[in-house]
Amino acid sequence: MTGPAYRRDRARLPAAERRRQIMEATAQLIAERGFWGLSMQDVADRCGLTVPGLLHHVGSKDGLLVAVLEHRDAEDARSLASLLGVDDLAAPWTGGALPPGVGLRQMCAALVRRNAGQPEIVRLFAVLEAESLAPSHPAHDYFAARQEHILATFTALAKDVTATPHALARQLVAMMDGLQIQWLRAPQTNDLVQDWEDAAKVLFADLDS
């Protein structure tokens, strides 16, 4: 059985538009199949390109994965900044300094709201994060650093509300990850935002937000 046919689009798109097209097609395919199930031919077909044409833009399969992750990080940082009402934001997964006035509970709520609006992207990261537990995976170092940066950011923010900031940071990340997996499996019966608010009442009980 063959998959859907995609038209070879010989139109020369502007470089930025073509790159965005490649990033979005790749993200969708990885969310569906995982990185190991991804083929460059599939990405090329989705974008109306030949494989050599695709390689001209991304260099290699590993290079494509890195480009997708960097693209999503930039998009998510802009979205998160908007939710937090700030002009610029060094997202917690990059290790940069946060703007003043952003509290831990506010940051967590914004992250959950952002994720609730993009289930396909959350699925992409969930699949890749699980796959990248293998040291040989090309995103292994990326996700190790990502987790370290998020924990460091949450720990720094938690110092204002608890005497055990690192423990609270780990609990918050674990709760977010767990709720997201349940939501992805049954989005019709799970409300990610409401589930997080219910969990936050417990995790932040007796703490100043």
From TrEMBL:
PROSITE patterns: HTH_TETR_2. InterPro entries: Homeodomain-like_sf, HTH-type_TetR-like_transc_reg, HTH_TetR, Tet_transcr_reg_TetR-rel_C_sf. SUPFAM superfamilies: Homeodomain-like, Tetracyclin repressor-like, C-terminal domain. Pfam families: TetR_N. Transmembrane segments: none annotated. Residues 16-76 form the HTH tetR-type domain. Residues 39-58 bind DNA. Keywords: DNA-binding, Transcription, Transcription regulation. GO terms for molecular function: DNA-binding transcription factor activity; transcription cis-regulatory region binding. PANTHER family: HTH-TYPE TRANSCRIPTIONAL REGULATOR BETI, HTH-TYPE TRANSCRIPTIONAL REGULATOR RUTR. This is TetR family transcriptional regulator. It comes from Catellatospora chokoriensis.
